[in-house]
Here is the input.
Amino acid sequence: MPFTDREILETVRMIELETLDIRTITLGISLFDCADPDVESACEKIYTKIVHHARGLQEVGRGISADYGIPIVNKRIATTPISWVAAASATDDLVPFARALDAAAKACGVDFIGGFTAYVHKGFTHSDDALFRSIPRALKETQHVCSSVSLGTTKAGINMSAVSRFSEVILETARLTADQGGLGCAKLVCFCNAVEDNPFVAGAHIGTGEPETVVNVGVSGPGVVRAAIAKLGPEPDLLAVAETVKRTAFKITRMGELVGREAARRLGTSFGIVDISLAPTPALGDSVSDILELIGVERTGAPGTTAALALLTDAVKKGGAMASSSVGGLSGAFIPVSEDAGMIDAVRVGALSLAKLEAMTSVCSVGLDMVAVPGNTSAATLTGIIADEMAIGMVNAKTTAVRIIPVPGKGPGETVEWGGLLGTAIVQDPGKFSCDVLHRRGGRIPAPIQSYKN
Amino acid sequence: MTRFLTSEDVRRANSRVIEVEEGTIVTPQAQDTAREMGVVVQTRGGTYREPAPSRGPDAAFAQRSLPHLPEPPAEGELASFTGVVVTAAGKNRPGVLSELTGALANSKANILDISQKVVEGYFHIVLMVELPPGSGFAQLKGTLECMGGPDDYVVRVMHERVFRFMHRV
Here is the structure.
């Protein structure tokens, strides 16, 4: 037999018991050629072009799943940032564009479409300004659209005026979707050093350097890494842990590489990247928090958590980089609080504070993700939280993001159920001290010096 | 560049017949407007049909280069056939192997290798199978994975290429 029983059963076990799956096949579609001075025509073109290219996406995903026996959970679409496409229309209201994206997603049978996006890390165009104004209503009126904004980069610094405005956008979005626990904010994310080939929502979009169409694949497998470390046991040293994670990440990524190539072939387009993020789900065992605890902290958030996460993220990247020449996107470990049963548990028992979470984001692959704060959190406090996160990304030349939900009517310690993949959140306390002056000042935090590192 | 014909274009054309270039995408809204206004949209060759998606300048190159990306080689007979790995696990009872091999024979699948272990009343079977050209993997998978049951045994069918990618460099 070309494979040993052990190899075969290992793979089967990963899929059957350890929830290994291809989390998403995301088709990126450039919308540059949809720009039109007439809003209605632009929206028509956007809808038509997306459906034209992505009509077969579900079928291709199902086909690969059937032909290889690999579960493929989501098929999604990422587009050119709408603020660039809508600029030609010179309109103040970009909600029609969101509706066009939403209708296209529905027609293609995908659950999420990313691209209601603006890049404002240095400043606003008229179109960016319109997009910011339109985000709350766009997220209220649509089901499938995800929105993202770039607020800072290591090369440009942080646009603090944009951060302050974005805080207001978050609050307004939460207010408009109050009947769903502020769920609109779960589809809204801001970035420092935004990734232009990210297949995962809510930040999925394709940037200026991307081709006309491209297939990006997101693989996930916290359950597999968890099982591998559990099998290793508590005795071996940390080099052994890193080695185990690396080997496991290698295998997971190979599956992503196979599916990426196959999806690109079947769709007749180019294969972009495999994103090898450990993306947890509320499912039992599919938890990054569990991995950290198996590495050696009593509860996630305890002293040592940041070090454990640093080891994990790095080892995932190293294993993945050996397995595919097309590693990209966010690649590493996600720590979305509400989507990871272990993390929610850590919050519940008081092990994981917002401050510790922020420290962890300096070594994870994304940032503050799916964090619930009280509904009456001020815009200034949100500005402070976002600015802190952007600063971590800017100075460390890494991607950081904030997806934060001020849950209307809820205070610290209260629970909110969003259900499905979004899971359960416990509202976290951002503290009682404010940063009103910082919020009001606006302007820009200059780009950091890249030399004299210590 | 994708060329579009929008409903606004139809309204502005002020003509009973609009001839679009090959490769133009007529939006559904434009088709509706044309129908309402009694306008015929056609290509030089005749009736308009939505063109096949043009995936962009990189796509053709990718389609040429993708098959040449190195991949772990298939060994022996599997190089020319579709290799399938069938695993089954569950409570041991007489007839399990015969049920599985019977179903494989019905699908004209050829068993290349087989291994079975029983531990404390539970078994697992691994079968390496080749499918003749033209016979459907999805169909075989459907048939086999419906066998057994929650209190009996479960079957998993996967393409051999998955294992090759995962366990061979």
In short: The domain at 76-167 of chain B is CATH 3.30.70.260 (Alpha-Beta Plaits). The beta strands of chain B are 4-5, 17-20, 25-26, 40-43, 46-47, 82-91, 110-119, 122-131, 153-159. Chain B touches chain A through 55 residues (CB under 8 Å).
